[in-house]
Amino acid sequence: MIAQQIEDLIFKARTKDQLIEETLTSLSGLLADILTGDDVNGLIKEFPEGIKIEDIGIQLRNVAIYLNSKEFKVPCVEVAIDLVQEKTQYEIGTYSLIFDETCEQTDEIFVIN
Q: Exposed, middle or buried by CB within 10 Å (0-12, 13-18, 19+), for 83?
């Protein structure tokens, strides 16, 4: 009940599911660029050798609401997705998008293990 009330307050501009979908779409584009495109950020060297897009599994890590933070302008919402190499269960890293109180993206974070 309380969780639903919080969601109703925070996710007025876009729903939690819409923010998750936007994060997945952004991650998909980034992975396509890294593994099959131009790799403009030079991240391929951080991935396991020979990995392909179809080798990567994803899992929702969290949707977090920050009211106090040293790292982010608050209030904000973080949607974090974990990436795992499915064959070996090796954790590749975590991809996050940060949204402000109007649900506009303000930051992108990709932490590679």
A: buried
Q: Model-level pTM? A: 0.90
Q: What three-state secondary structure class fits 27?
A: helix
DSSP helix/strand/coil, 7: helix
Q: Which residues of the chain have pLDDT under 50?
A: none
Which residue's entry shows tokens 């303000």? 106
CA angle at 70 for the pair 64 and 21, rounded to the nearest 5°: 30
- Half-sphere exposure for 75 (CA within 13 Å, toward CB): 10
Strand locations in 14-104 (E): 56-66, 76-85, 90-99
pLDDT given for residue 8 in this prediction = 80
Spatial separation of the C-alpha atoms in residues 29 and 34, rounded to whole Å:
9
Residue position matching structure tokens 């109007």: 102
